[in-house]
Structure formats: structure tokens, C-alpha cells
Specification:
Chains A, B: GO terms for molecular function: acyl carrier activity; fatty acyl-[ACP] hydrolase activity. Two copies of one chain form a homodimer. By secondary structure, the first copy, chain A, is α+β, with helices and mostly antiparallel strands. Helix content of chain A is 12%, strand content 26%. In chain A, helix 1 runs antiparallel to helix 4. At the A-B interface, helix 1, helix 4 and helix 5 of A face helix 1, helix 4 and helix 5 of B.
Chain lengths: 373, 373
């Protein structure tokens, strides 16, 4: 068989990109860019347009070390005040499920129905399905406010300089999983994280009851497409971003959330055999999709946990890109076992590592699982 | 770690079930139940309520043998007349994306937006995503008209007797794949297939242009849940179904569509290593999801085809259930190679087989791939 046709074109811009090299990752912890309270250095400070969430309404994620029992991040949460959906200059209502802008374009809101195919074996929406909605709202928000020049969230100046935003870390805290035919409403907004990073927050609510289902925060850094190195935010880019950023701290203090090291020599762990992504695991950029990363993480968790517990919290730290020829292995070690007996089951926490056959890290993660009542 | 909690409850009814035993499959070809033109035997004929599609508007799927070049089924298609969406007793509009009934409940229509996560590496909606929408509309249709007593499409009498509908065969013909942010509109209806079977048709349209994107037909038989054997349709069940069935032939003559045998001793084929389903591959009934079947089929197709061709037609024949402990292998053989040179590429056709480690067949399939222009 001779196949000489040209490969398919890729009309889509870059989605939630992941980090390209392990070398670059060190700045994600915040050491290179200072905390959100630090003074500006080379880049001028951003004059924030609006203040919606009081700074004290932040989930503080406790610093976590290996095998150390910690209070779940969710325990410290407070509920931000109700969003103001007054119509403003930038606001536009498309349709019930198409999304709309609020707060002068600062906040994007979109509804989704939970369908039969979104459900996992426990009859609830899967975390993979929910993470896909999270991705969709961030893209739609950027598109709605015009931050889409050549890539996800890119300003014109960023495009000119070949810069894109890459997702370094993502933390998700689940209160309750939606069920079939539920309508979920997602609010998302973004803000400055230090001088050279962005955070994005998401709140998932039950559309009918207004109950909060999920909170999530992602941390993004700016990367040069060619050199694959992180870049500082210039004055021009700051000016372009100014009106798009919320003056608030992130819902979850993700910058300081530490992940336990999975030292494969010292600890017992579960592992999968190596696997290559299939065609259906690739996104429009020929990268492995984020949903597949989560699938791989789950594959090294014992079935006995998966069928009796549900994911309560998940922190993902993206370390390097994974493409169609990558050969990946998933490793999981118990970080804290609070299962005890059936009447005092406090759940179980795992450290995870996805690594390439070559040894390079693709993803580090921590997950907390609570018993299904 | 001690895990003693009870397993999660499964609040959802049985979805599109697949056949439980190889022994039972022989009747799916239509030999046991006669053609749709045959006279009723033990079960009384169904008095159809409405006639919408002329019988000549049917895609005739040519009988296919191994390695035989055939005209694609799509070539013979005709477009059914426009549906009548007058409001009737059973009709109800929920919302733009919630679905509505037409033709007195005979036809169900639902819209879906194509999201970023629905796209494959070629920037178009994946066939897996489209098959999920197909499944959703069939479930929603049954639910809307009250055919949901204890299982997908079940009547009260069926529930009493422990009977469910199982999907034996599904054929899909794709004209055009939708892209990001497109809204697709799906119409679906069901009708009698012989005296003891049902067919279900689907038409996918572009919501804006009204262009037909996809046609599909599924063939269902009634199975006893305990004995796992096929059952005849009784007079009581016929009465219950009477008002739900369209008086038409299926869009695709799926009953007579033959699949090529994949004789692994005589032909060259591609194969994957054996694989077990992951947690995220299971549906609410702890069966492997239909999307995963398609993933597995794709895994044994060479990447060189996947990246230069797109799926034009797919026929799936479900042979046995696949559960979480199943160990599955995917095999693919070329049925017809029309790739030629780049100026005369007529595409390529494959026969597929998913089989268990034990040798049992899970799924037989034929796919037709056309070059991407």
C-alpha cells in the first residue's frame, strides 16, 4: 500500500500547552518570579481593573511532604461572594450553553449538561469529563475577549514574539460529582501570579441548586515557542493583559502547593507496563490529551481503591510534553493511608509519576481519595 | 491498607448493551427472524402509526466478502424527506440543547456543540465523540417517550419478563466531520426490523447549513437478562411498542450487511499486544464503553493511514460483552487497498477483530478510509 497524501492540516490554535523540557520547570514553584505579594522587578505592575473576591477567600493548600498526613485543602475553603452578572460593554449572551461574559469580560460563565457518556462506572461524571469542560471554558473565555492571537490566551505582542502560555500546575478540589442530566455551571477568571505568571480559577456549580461542586486553579507561565524557555512579561504584554485580569488571589494557593517525591528506590509502588498513546489520545496539536494523562495516572491505582473511593482532590504538575511516539509508564505510591476500618475510613492519598521510557518525567501528581458513602 | 467499604451503587439503567455470548449471535444476521419484508410468524404484526420515509429512500449496503472491492454504501444513499416538527400531544421543548420530540413522539431531535475536547489530531470531531452523541440521543428518546422501565428502551412487559434490548450491529456513514464550535443536530427514530428486532436510525446535520453529515443505523434484538438468550417479541410487548415505531425501512440495510471474515491464518494482519480496559474505559454497568471498542479497533490500524485518511464508513458487529477483567487483542487486515498513487487514491478498507485472550470474539468490524483532501 502506498500512501502519499499530505498529512492533515491543523487549523486549531495551541490548546492548554504543557511544559516542553524538564530543565525549565524549576521556575514554576515561584522561586524565580516571587510571590504574588512581591514588588515588580523588570516588568511594571499591572493595574487591576476590578476587585471581586476578597483576598481572604482563598483555599490555602498546605505544604505537603512525603508520607505526611495533612488536612485536605478543601477543609480551609471559603465561598467567594456572588458574581455580579450586570450587563457591561463586553458582555454578550450567546445561548444557554454557549457561554457569556460577566464583570466587563473578566469572568466567563458556561453551562454544560452531563450526558450518559460522561459517566464513569460509579454512575457519576468522571474527573476526565470535568477537566475537559474546564479546558473548554478557559479557551472560550480567551476567545470571547480576543486573547487568541496565534495561541490560547496569547496577546498580539506575545504572538509577535513567539510566546505562548503553558500550564504548569493544576489543582482541583471536588465537593460533589454531578450525575446524569445534571446541568453544571462553570465560572472562570484569570489573574496575575507574581510578575510573570497567570493563574486561572474555576468554580463548578449545580445549575439548579447553586451548590458548589468543584473548585480549581491552574498556574500558567509564558514560554518561547522556539527556544522552549520561559520568558518574562514585558511592558507591552502587561498593557495588553491589563483589562483581562481579576484583582484577586487564586482560589487555591497552587504556587506553594508541594508535591511529594516518588522515590522509586525507597518506596513500594504500583506500576503499569509501558504504553504508547493511541490515535484517539492525541489532541489537535498531536500532543497527548490531558484526559489521557489522568487515565494513565488512574491505571496504576489499584481497582480496589477506585471502586470503593472517589477522587476528592488532585494536583497535577506538568513536566514535559508527551507526543504520539512517547512510551510512558505510570507509577503510584501510597502517600498517606487513612483507610483504617470501614467506620473510620479517612481515605487514601497517592503520589504519582508518569515518566518516559528514557526516564524523563512527564507529570507528577498527588490525589486524595475518599470512601464512597 | 484495608478497604472494606461497599462497592459503589449503580443508579443508572442498562445502556446500549452488547451481546453476551457467541452462541446467541447467529440470529443477528436475520436468518432466525426473517427479513423486514417477511410475514409475521409467532408474533403478531405491528400496526405502524405513521409513515414518514418512503421505503425507497434506503441506503442499500452491498454484501461484502473478503478482499472484494465494493461500491461504498454511501454512494447509494437518498435523502429522506424533511421531518415535520409540528407540536403534538407528546411534543415538548426543553431547551436548545435538551432535545425535543417530533412526529407525536416518533422522532427525537437534539443539538450538540462541538467542543475543543471533541477534536482529534486532524482538528475534526472524532468518530468516538460522534458515537457518544448517537448513544445519548437514543437513550434520551427512550426516556422522553417513557420506554425506560428498568433498562434502555424497555417496556413494562419487557421489564416484567427480564428482557432488554441489545445492540447487535451498527453502521455509520460519514459525509463530513464537524469542526470546533459547530452545532450538530441529530434526528433519531426507531422501527421494526422483522418480527423480533428493532432498528434505530440517526441523521446528523450541520445546524446552520442543514447539510447532512452522518447517517447511521443500529440493529437491536431482545435478550433475556438471566438466560442471556434472544427472545421473541410477544403480543403484549408489540402492543406497548406500537406507538413508538416509525413505518419505514432503515436508512441503511444493516440486516443484510455482511462483514468479511478475518482469517488470521490466511491473511496478513496488524495486531496490538493484549490489553485490559482501564477504570476510565468502563461505563455505568461496568462494561467497556463503546468508545473504547472503537479506540481498540483504531489501535491496530497503521498510523500512516490514520494521519492521511479519514473514516468514511464503519460497520460494527457486537459479539460478546467485555468487562473490566477482559484481556483484549485488536487485529486488522486490509480488505481492499485502493490507495494507488496520490492522484487516484480510492481509500482503503479494513476488516477488524477484537478478541479475548481466550479466543472469543468481542467485535467484528469493517471500516472504509478515504484520503484527506
Amino acid at each position: 500500500m502506498v500512501l502519499t497524501s499530505a498529512p492533515p492540516t491543523l487549523p486549531m490554535p495551541r490548546l492548554l500547552s504543557t511544559l516542553p523540557t524538564n530543565k525549565s520547570i524549576s521556575c514554576c514553584g515561584g522561586t524565580n518570579y516571587g510571590s504574588s505579594q512581591s514588588k515588580p522587578n523588570s516588568a511594571p505592575a499591572i493595574n487591576f481593573q476590578a476587585k471581586v473576591f476578597p483576598k481572604e477567600n482563598v483555599i490555602t493548600s498546605p505544604k505537603q511532604d512525603d508520607d505526611k498526613t495533612v488536612t485536605p485543602a478543601a477543609a480551609a475553603r471559603k465561598i467567594p461572594q456572588h458574581l455580579n452578572w450586570e450587563s457591561r460593554k463586553l458582555d454578550g449572551v450567546y445561548d444557554t450553553f454557549g457561554g457569556k461574559l460577566g464583570q466587563g469580560g473578566l469572568v466567563f460563565q458556561q453551562n454544560f449538561s452531563i450526558r450518559s457518556y460522561d459517566l464513569g462506572p460509579n454512575g457519576k461524571a468522571t474527573i476526565g469529563c470535568l477537566m475537559e469542560r474546564l479546558q473548554e471554558t478557559s479557551i472560550q473565555h480567551c476567545r470571547s475577549v480576543g486573547l487568541y492571537a496565534g495561541g490560547f490566551g496569547s496577546t498580539p505582542e506575545m504572538s509577535k514574539r513567539g510566546l505562548v502560555w503553558v500550564l504548569c500546575k493544576l489543582q482541583t478540589v471536588v465537593e460533589k460529582y454531578p450525575s446524569w442530566a445534571d446541568v453544571i455551571q462553570i465560572d472562570t477568571w484569570t489573574g496575575a501570579s507574581g510578575n510573570n505568571g497567570l493563574f486561572r480559577d474555576w468554580i463548578f456549580r449545580d445549575y439548579s441548586t447553586r451548590e458548589i461542586l468543584i473548585r480549581a486553579t491552574g498556574l500558567y507561565m509564558m514560554m518561547h515557542m522556539k527556544t522552549r524557555k520561559f520568558s518574562k512579561v514585558t511592558a507591552e504584554i502587561t498593557d495588553e493583559l491589563r483589562s483581562a485580569l481579576m484583582d484577586s488571589d487564586p482560589l487555591i494557593d497552587i504556587k506553594n502547593a508541594k508535591l511529594g517525591r516518588l522515590d522509586i528506590d525507597a518506596r513500594n509502588y504500583f506500576q503499569t507496563s509501558v504504553a504508547k498513546p493511541g490515535w484517539s489520545d492525541l489532541d489537535v496539536n498531536q500532543h497527548v490529551s490531558h484526559a489521557k494523562y489522568i487515565d494513565w495516572v488512574f491505571e496504576s491505582i489499584p481497582f480496589s481503591v477506585l471502586e470503593t473511593h472517589e477522587l476528592s482532590s488532585m494536583t497535577l504538575e506538568y513536566r514535559s510534553e508527551c507526543r504520539r511516539d512517547s512510551v510512558v509508564q505510570s507509577l503510584t505510591a501510597v502517600a498517606r493511608d487513612g483507610t483504617g476500618d470501614s467506620t473510620h475510613n479517612q481515605g487514601v492519598e497517592f503520589d504519582h509519576l508518569l515518566r518516559l521510557e528514557t526516564g524523563s518525567k512527564v507529570l507528577r501528581a498527588r490525589t486524595l481519595w475518599k470512601p464512597i458513602m
